[in-house]
Each structure stands twice: as structure tokens, then as C-alpha cells.
TrEMBL record:
<protein>
    <recommendedName>
        <fullName>Exonuclease domain-containing protein</fullName>
    </recommendedName>
</protein>
<dbReference type="GO" id="GO:0005829">
    <property type="term" value="C:cytosol"/>
</dbReference>
<dbReference type="InterPro" id="IPR036397">
    <property type="entry name" value="RNaseH_sf"/>
</dbReference>
<dbReference type="GO" id="GO:0003676">
    <property type="term" value="F:nucleic acid binding"/>
</dbReference>
<dbReference type="InterPro" id="IPR013520">
    <property type="entry name" value="Ribonucl_H"/>
</dbReference>
<dbReference type="Pfam" id="PF00929">
    <property type="entry name" value="RNase_T"/>
</dbReference>
<dbReference type="InterPro" id="IPR012337">
    <property type="entry name" value="RNaseH-like_sf"/>
</dbReference>
<keyword id="KW-0378">Hydrolase</keyword>
<feature type="domain" description="Exonuclease">
    <location>
        <begin position="16"/>
        <end position="190"/>
    </location>
</feature>
<keyword id="KW-0540">Nuclease</keyword>
<keyword id="KW-0269">Exonuclease</keyword>
<dbReference type="GO" id="GO:0008408">
    <property type="term" value="F:3'-5' exonuclease activity"/>
</dbReference>
Length: 191
């Protein structure tokens, strides 16, 4: 399937940002999405506009990595009650992220899992074809500091005094990525 991105006429500096995070049943691309959390921020001002928390019911939980399920805090009853099927979850995310630039901490992981799921369902992205990575921004601004051996979202959040909520829950990690981004912007402006 050829990937088609739309709305090229919108300049990048006029696009809202969509800070997002995914949780999956494992690292490999054949693993399923369990959650997508996202925070939308206004272009240029970065004012928080809205957020969405999407739980996705896994179809093949038997193929999940037990470690991944433990890290995410997967609870079958919670997902059954609050979750939706993957198709509905993807459509909800595509609607939320329309015309934005995606931003994540370790963007390739989250982007690839979403893209893989979109392709399996025959969906096209509604967001811009380029994104921002808070890991990369952190590396540029803080990568020479010994206190950041991995430049993880947790390390950066702790450094900036950000309450992460429940780490490895998609919405809380999306919120953390947004707040880390805001702190990195402030740090950049001071330099």
C-alpha cells in the first residue's frame, strides 16, 4: 500500500503539535497496540488544547510479552470495560491528530507501531509526514551531562521536576513528553 499524506498546503509553523505515546504487547512490530495517549498543543504558542486516552482491546493477548504486559499494567477487566477495537482506536487517533506534527519521546518506536497498524487496516495518515522527537532535542541540549545516561523520558521528567503520573501508561507518558518538550524549549531559549 502506498502511503499518502494529505494537506501539504499547511505550512509546518501553522500546524498544531500532537504529543503521543503508545503502549504495546511487546517491542516487535508484530505486537499489538494496547494504548495510544495524545496531547494536542497549539502551533507556535504550544498551549495545551486537548487530550485523548485510547485503550485498545488486544486480539491475540496470548502472543503478548509477559514483561510488556507487566510494564503497561495490563488488566483484562480494565481493557474489556474501557477498551475499543483497533479500528475504532485508530480512527479516533487519526481524527485527533489530523493536520498535526507528531511528537514523541523515541518517536520511531511509536510512529512505526501506529503506521504498522494503519497499514493493516488500509488507513492513511492524517498527520504531517515529519515529526519531532524529545529524545533528540534532549540529546542536543543535555546529552553531554552524566546524569542522563539514557536520556529516557523518566530521567528528563525527574530532572525537570515533572510528575509523570503512571509511567508506561500512554496518556501519562504523552503528557510527560509534552511537559519535557516545554522545558526543553525554555532551556533552548536561555542558550
Amino acid at each position: 500500500m502506498e502511503i499518502k499524506y494529505k494537506h501539504f498546503e499547511i505550512p509546518v509553523n501553522e500546524r498544531d503539535l500532537c504529543f503521543f505515546d503508545t503502549e504495546t504487547t511487546g517491542f516487535e512490530l508484530n505486537k499489538e497496540l494496547l494504548e495510544i495517549g495524545a496531547v494536542r498543543a497549539k502551533a507556535n504558542t504550544f498551549e495545551k488544547l486537548s487530550e485523548v486516552d485510547i485503550k485498545i482491546k488486544p486480539q491475540h493477548i496470548e502472543n503478548a510479552s509477559p514483561e510488556a504486559l507487566e510494564v503497561v499494567g495490563y488488566n483484562e477487566a480494565e481493557w474489556e470495560k474501557e477498551g475499543m477495537n483497533l479500528r475504532e482506536g485508530l480512527l479516533k487517533f487519526l481524527d485527533f491528530a489530523e493536520d498535526t506534527i507528531l511528537v514523541a519521546h523515541n518517536l520511531p518506536f511509536d510512529w512505526m507501531h501506529v503506521q504498522n497498524a494503519l497499514e493493516k487496516h488500509g488507513f492513511q495518515p492524517t498527520y504531517f509526514y515529519k515529526g519531532l522527537d524529545t529524545f533528540s532535542l534532549g540529546w542536543l541540549l543535555l546529552g553531554d551531562k552524566a546524569e542522563f545516561p539514557r536520556l529516557s523520558l523518566k530521567e528528563l521528567s525527574n530532572h525537570f521536576g515533572i510528575n509523570m503520573g503512571t509511567h508506561h501508561r500512554a496518556i501519562d507518558d504523552a503528557r510527560s513528553a509534552y511537559m519535557v518538550f516545554m522545558e526543553l524549549v525554555k532551556l533552548y531559549e536561555k542558550k
